[in-house]
Amino acid sequence: MALDFAFLLDFRWVLLKGLWTTLQFVTLALVIGLVWGFVLSLFRTSSNWVIYSLSTIYVEFFRGTPVLIQLFWIFFCLPLFLDVNLSDFTSVVIALSLYSGAITSESFRAALKSIESSQHDACIALGLPPTVRTLFVILPQAVLRAIPNLLSNVVSLFKESALVSAVGMADLMYVGQNIANNVARPVEILTAVALIYFAIGFPLTRAVSFVEARLLKVVKA
Amino acid sequence: MAFVEINNLIKRYGSLTIFDGFDLTMSSTDRLVLIGPSGCGKSTLLRCMMGLEDIAGGTISLGGDPYITGAERGKMTLDKTVQKEVGMVFQHYTLFPHLSVLGNLCLAPMRSRGMGKSDAQDKAMELLKRFGLGDRAKFYPSQLSGGQKQRVAIARALMLDPKLMLFDEVTSALDPELVKEVEQTMMELAEAGMPMMIVTHDMHFARNIATQVVFQERGKVIEAAAPNDLFGNPKQDRTRDFLKNVLNIEG
Ligand SMILES: Nc1ncnc2c1ncn2[C@@H]1O[C@H](COP(=O)(O)OP(=O)(O)OP(=O)(O)O)[C@@H](O)[C@H]1O
Ligand SMILES: [Mg+2]
User: In sequence order, which ranges of chain B are alpha helices (DSSP H)?
Assistant: First the structure.
């Protein structure tokens, strides 16, 4: 069988539209997941037993189950429970935000825990009140330390987002599969789709290494 | 009344008792150097004085004010206004890595003393210049040598005008060639009349800076004397053994 990539040019706008959709819901889910994840990480360091347990169960559940099942669950079960009609786009954003929040909270939690107790000692020796300690000493260091991990999460979520094609969301993957079915050329089209994912994902992974090397120099003083 | 007064201090870590009725006094013209074998509780003593450790009994006073009072059960009482008159420098610098040198110096005066930004910065620059660090104000801790970091840490503590400074092995983490600059900074402080309590393993430096040397072992003061007496003519056998040991190791 001869490979022929030329026909792909006819589909470039459809593919780009799929990519645009992917980028939109991934970005939204990342931003919401970042905020939600930070709140969760605080919950998980809470001394309140109920808050601690609920948030821990939540995080472990979302980290320990397949994203695909989470997607199905939000798509088909959530509307029934809440008796609402959600658009596909909204459902995808909700599902991926809930998932990325769980992952993100772990990055923040690890960063919070990695701050040496001597930093707290220094704060007390300088007479810093607890709020100042948290806001000006602990939080900025936690965020800096979490950045490399957070960026890796971005790359993973971007790739895992291809799963939403399974619930009929017209993302890049879904568009690719559709074209493949129509023109009966799955090898070329799926290769092309992979290359598009790669073209976005690769610079992101490079950015992670770059930022990591730079930040570690500053943070590990 | 003594400037610093520690009465009947009791300190435990779980079931491990570090101090069981420890007493110590120091006058405001003293620079007291604590020496003793590893694990005898020198760091613990300074940490208790700084208010970093919960104590199970006794009192610690500064200028006649008992600012820390231990409690066998529940929390000790701590007077934060007096605590703020004590400054401490640690072995591993503990600078804030995300802030510049200037940021490290200005954080506490601005955020907990309500000092204005320009006042804080002026004061910081003055201190940095005094320590020969004027050109490092914009640097981050990771861009400094160990000796510079430690001098910045000293300057940071001085921003709050402490009445007593605690130094816990501040040169132990440094390369030998960087020890001098930090010791010089401390000597300069000493000459300016700052009361200090210093923990060090460097007996030469101890002899130079101290007005009082306290030899401590297993949570007890074994001998306290002027440096020439304690190093030149120790009264206790255990002091003599200890000094013989460390001076041999030092060569
Ligand atoms: N946080 C802690 N929890 C439990 N035990 C501790 C803790 N900190 C110190 N200790 C113990 O208390 C004792 C005194 O420790 P400390 O650090 O005060 O000794 P030191 O005289 O400063 O020794 P060094 O010269 O090695 O610094 C040691 O036996 C140590 O193991
Ligand atoms: Mg020590």
Answer: 42-50, 80-83, 101-112, 117-130, 146-158, 176-191, 203-209, 227-232, 237-250
Q: What is the dihedral of CA A130, A132, A135, A140, to 10 degrees?
A: -110
Q: Does some domain include residue A1? A: no
pLDDT, tens digit, 9 for 90 and up, residues A28-80: 999 999 999 989 998 998 889 999 999 999 999 999 999 999 999 998 888 88
Per the structure, the count of domains in chain B is: 1
Report how far residue B214's alpha carbon sits from residue B222's, in angstroms, rounded to the nearest whole number.
Answer: 8
Q: Considering the domain boundaries, does residue A42 fall inside one?
A: yes
Q: What share of chain A is helix, strand, coil (3-state, %, to 5)?
A: 85, 0, 15
How close is the nearest chain B Cα to the Cα of A46, in Å?
A: 21
Q: Is B96–A124 a contact, with Cβ atoms under 8 angstroms apart?
A: no
ipTM score of complex: 0.93
CA of B104 to nearest chain A CA: how many angstroms apart? 10
**Parent domain of A68:** 6-219
- Atom 30 in ligand 1: which residue has the minimum CA distance? B39
Nearest-angstrom CA–CA distance, B77 and B220: 24
pLDDT tens-place string over residues A119-159:
999 999 999 998 999 889 988 898 888 888 888 899 999 99
Q: What's the number of domains chain A is made of? A: 1
